[in-house]
Amino acid sequence: MKNIVISGYYGQLNTGDEAILRVLIDRLREYERQENEDLNVVVLSSRPQLTSKIYSVDSVNRKKIWEVVKTIKRCDIFISGGGSLFQNETSNRSLYYYLFQIFLAKLFGKKVFIFSQGIGPIKKWYNILIFKHIIKLADYITVRDYDSFDLLHRLKLKNKIDLSADPAFLLNPCCEKRVEKLLQTYNIDLSKKTIGIVVRKWKKEKDMTDKIAQIADILIENEGYNVVFIPFQGKWDIIKINEIISKMKNKPYILSESFQPHELLGIFRCFDLIVGMRLHSLIFASKMNKRFVGISYDPKIDSFLKMYGLKPAGYVDSFDVNNVLLNIQYMLNESKIQKKIEQITINMIQRAEKSFEILKEALSTTRKRKNINILGVRIDCINFNKAKKKCIDFLSSSSPKVVFTPNVEMIMLSQRDEKFKKILNSSDLNVPDGIGVVWASKYFGEKLYERVTGFDLMMSLMPELEKKRARVFLLGAKPGIAEKAKENLLKQFKNLEICGIYHGYFSEEENNTVVEIINSSKADVLFVAMGMKKQEEWIYKNKKKLKCKLIMGVGGSLDVLSGEVKRAPKMFQRLGLEWFYRLITQPWRFKRMLALPKFVFVVLKNRIFGGR
């Protein structure tokens, strides 16, 4: 199962943003059906319960930062989806918040997709600098208009940037019968020309309320048109609409604020023209091949109109009533404009599909890998149960199979010792021994969710080895330790066949004798406990001479089994803090423990600056 997190301005009941989310979720479900693959979609929303109910997905409150952090940490792909998230026209907080999410996702090693965004305006040089350095971390970038495309290219990003279109162009409207049912209560005479007006409150407006009221009155009284006010963001738009109507002489129609995006899109079939202050009112009009006039409050309106060869009829803080009326009459009467809208809209739909083609490609390439490379050391992407099963399967092999348990200390040592790195990579199975390796895995292509310690893996094999009557040899530790370990093992596994033991303090001259003792015992499994590096070097050197089926390096496991060394309490084990327990109980290991902070530094340096 792949975990996908979608971030955007969701949960605010903004029809445009909800249309984007609807298309995203529908397309992801279509991918699931086509590819027969499970996707777990989580949406960051300001109203998570409502979002979950409407779209049948998991949802997390985007205002609860700790929940957002945990959600992003668990995902495979992070989608910063739709809208105009990267701008500070409204506030710096919004810009910083969405950039923080991207930085966080990349810090956790996730794939990041900037999905059909409108970028800008971004004011102040330092905001542009912050934006540039974070946006370049994204794996995929698609933008919905030429101005956003040009802005990113002016920043000289090395990322591949694709020009797409707003995902709302791919929203499917509800059927005509459903539209008829929805409009029954309004008794709109659709035999007359019907003009839809979409407004919004804007802090810089000057006499906008009076001017829109005047325009609506002229359309009703002088032209004999229907005027229908359409709320695109619930009660916020209704408040503004009521202000306008209070200034009017004639009575217009007002649609309900409770329509879903696909229902509202279907209703747009009934309009001859839309006067819109919201971007998605213009997108809905063009999608349904209806004529439209835009009043701009934001450069994104200008960018959209430019793609249709149009200009705003005015701006919220300065527009002329007569100019807007002239634009309305021109759009209604110009015969060629309809065909032009249809042709450009076909192109916009095709471009909108491009983002989903890229998303599909991203999903198909986000597959679970067999292994990852952490600072040059191969770590197999395997959990505890699968590691155990693989070790049991090795017992059926005709040649010796080697299992190593790389931890942070071993990986850091391999940075200074290329021969040791080669030895670690020569094994048949490398399990992630230690929470540090699991933590680092998310930066190197595959998140591992479980550590597999050498001691625990060895002990989990004992019942299976006992059942299969496999012969076990214990090699390593100080003289006398292996004997005690054998004694304790047989107390726990009475039928386990331990065919031989030998200490780890033998000389180079004795090596061939030790190998002969192991082979003579006809051991199937050899556990080598000579400590880090020494045991791996010994196994690598003698593998071809040995006749065992499974050889595993187990570090200080025989010391623990013998009772000479006490293992960390279960609580420390569960939290992945065995290293901390060893530090406080064996402070003389302090220098060895320095490998952990060094490892963290090297991993983050490689992640941020590359070079791994």
From TrEMBL:
Protein name: N-acetylglucosaminyldiphosphoundecaprenol N-acetyl-beta-D-mannosaminyltransferase
EC code: 2.4.1.187
Reported function: Catalyzes the conversion of GlcNAc-PP-undecaprenol into ManNAc-GlcNAc-PP-undecaprenol, the first committed lipid intermediate in the de novo synthesis of teichoic acid.
Origin: domain of life: Bacteria
Glycosyltransferase found in the keyword field: yes
Record organism: Caldicellulosiruptor bescii (strain ATCC BAA-1888 / DSM 6725 / KCTC 15123 / Z-1320)
Pathway(s) the chain acts in: Cell wall biogenesis; teichoic acid biosynthesis
Keywords assigned by UniProt, alphabetized: Cell wall biogenesis/degradation, Glycosyltransferase, Teichoic acid biosynthesis, Transferase
Main enzyme class: transferase
Pfam families in UniProt: Glyco_tran_WecG, PS_pyruv_trans
